[in-house]
Structures are given as C-alpha cells and as structure tokens.
Amino acid sequence: MLVAHACSVAVLAGLLACGNDITPPSEPLPTPTTPAPPAMTVLGRGDVAPQRITAEVAVRGTTAFTTTVGNSASAGSVFHIWDVSGNVPTLVDSVKVPFATTLGDVAVSDDGALLTVATEHAGGSLLVYGLADPRRPTLLSRFTSANTAAGVHTAEIGRVNGRLYAFLSVDESASLPSRLVVVDLDTPTAPVEVLVRAIGRPFVHDTFVRDGLLYLALWDDGVAIWDIGGGGRGGSVSAPVELGRVQTANGNVHNVWWLKDPVTNITRYAFIGEESESVFGASSSGDVHVVDVSTPSAPREVAYFTVPGAGAHNFSVDEASGILYAAYYNGGVRALDVRGDLGTCSASQKSSPRGSGALCDLRLMGREIGVGLLDRPTSVYVWGVQYIDGAVYASDMLNGLWKLRALSRS
After folding, report:
1. How confident is the model at residue 51 (pLDDT cuts 50, 70, 90)?
2. CB 165 within 8 A of CB 158
3. Which of 191, 119, 129, 178 is nearest to 152 (CA)?
C-alpha cells in the first residue's frame, strides 16, 4: 500500500503525489558511519505490459504470481503467472479478474494447493483458486459479504490447529469502519466467515499468523498480539483474546513479521514496517521497527532501521540464515542481518527515530549486509519481496518482476 491508504490507486497510476499529513522530520537523520553494503546480484527481470502496475508477489516452486493495481475499468484487473525456473522470469499467462480495479495481496497456502487473491475496491472479495496445475489456476470460489464490501486490502492465509484460514484486512468506508474479517477455508469451494471485528485507526492494514498467535498492523493503534489458539489464554479464531499491544515510533504500522529462528530458537523479535509519506515512483519514507515480544503482554520497541529518502513496504525473511529482506520502494531491496541480540548496542550505535528516544540503530550496528537493484540504469519502486530456495524475488511497480541471488552466511 502507498500512503495515504485512502488515496485512489488511479492517482498512483497517474504518478501523482500520494501522502498523509505526517510532519517531515525536523532534524536530519544520523549519517551512517559504517561502510556501504555490497550490491546484491541481479539474475534477471521479467517485463509486463507498460499499462500495468505490478504489486505483490508470491512464489511456490518454479511458479510466481504477481498482482496489479490501479487498473482502469475498461482494462480490468489481472494477475500474472511466471515461470521462474531460470534466471529471467518468463511470463506464462495473465488471469483476468472481473469487478475489481486493484488486486493487492496474493498468497499460496503452505501445502501449495490454494492461491488466494484480494480484490478492491467496492465489491471487495477474496478469490480462491485451486493449484492442481500451478500454471493454470482454477477458480474455486469468490468470497464476498457485507463486511468485505468496501474492499479487501490484504489477505494473509495461515493454519491454526491444522485448519486453514484467511485473515482479511478490509478498507474503511463512509458508512463502516475498517475491520478484520476471518474466513475458514477448510472447504475452499465454500468459505465461511467466522469472525468480524471493527479494529484499527483509521484501518487495519495487515496480519501475521503463526503458532496460534495473530499479529495485527493497526496503523496508529500500533501492533496488537492476539491469542487465537496458541497463546495459553483460551483464545480461538472466532473468539480471540488480546495479549498485548505496542505503539512503535511514528505510528503508521503497515506490516509485521514475527521471527522464529530455527538455528538459535529465538522467537523474541517482531519486525514492524512503517509506511509514511511517498510520491509514487520517486520517493518514500518509513522505518523498520524491532519489537521485543518475549513478554507478549508488554512488547517494547528496542531497535530500528532507516534509509534516508526511502521507506519500507513488505518483508520476507530467510529464517534459516537469519536475513530479512525488505522491499524499500525507491530504495530497492535491503538485506538485514537479524540473527542474535538486536536490542543491545553501544551508545555510538544508537540514534533517535522521530517521536522516540534513543534506540539501537541497525545501520550503525552494521546489520545492513546487502542492497539490491540500486545499481540498475533505471529507477525502481519495489512493492513486494519474497525469499525462497536461494533466490529473492522483488515485484517492482515500474519494471515488473526481478530475480536476485540471495545472500549467504558461508
């Protein structure tokens, strides 16, 4: 999503400024004293039609899916299917979606059986496709209700106690506040709405589900952690129990990734994306915030990462290697070392984000270990990123789909 949430994507398509009323920082951000990180290796790029703006990306095996935003009513919405078995992503097909101008989120279930696509604006819905043949998705159902009518902005899918659910972040409208809608996908041909909760100020933007806990990105209401079946407080998907909440510096909580490191077994940190002012194709702002969630009832921000002149959007983490990849719009792709203790640092490694006291600064700690796509001859504006099988895929609103070589600790 580009700020502000209420801005029409048609404005984005016209390459006009889209911003909120956040006051720019009154003081300059600290100048990094660490060496510039190396450029990530670009393997190839797949092009799309110039009238389409590329949005989110999801990859499974050798097939990738990317959505498009800001489509005209006459052109209609499409999502693209790619063969990514080689270095250069190759467009295989485009699937048209009627009655939608924007397809924001796309996700593949953990077993590879289902593909879900969120549609905006009015008449918002969740499309569920079967992936018996990943290159030829079969539409199984289109879920819509009065509670999704304003538009489904994001739709994350995950299992709770073995059952598959979709967690829909629904846009606010003139008559209804933003809301979380949870849909049971156990029978994908007949999804069932199991929870509706008005939440977020002014909206709920995204969710992250793992081990029976649900993290909610609530913009200016911060980050909430709910027990939905794994938090020990008796919560369930249909009757969640809030465990804790935190306000990160600057607000504008956009997305969340709760890290579960399989090497160190550390589950202490959640990474929070902040999305602030932006001008489509030219500039952006917003930091990555690190929150210690070891005590879910009292989460606290301990560190952050900032790129002057650019802002975070979505994350993907190579948890086996402890490397977070962040889509940073005009700042390309940023790779951060997130293994170990992120909340302890020297005084010289601290700085102050807007609206906060001194925190550990991941840049000053030397945690930025790679930058992708800024060595290209053309400008980039990276919306989404996904790590999988030794590669990093970046969906670029201006240029299509990039494939980069993932970093290695060896």
Report:
1. confident
2. yes
3. 119
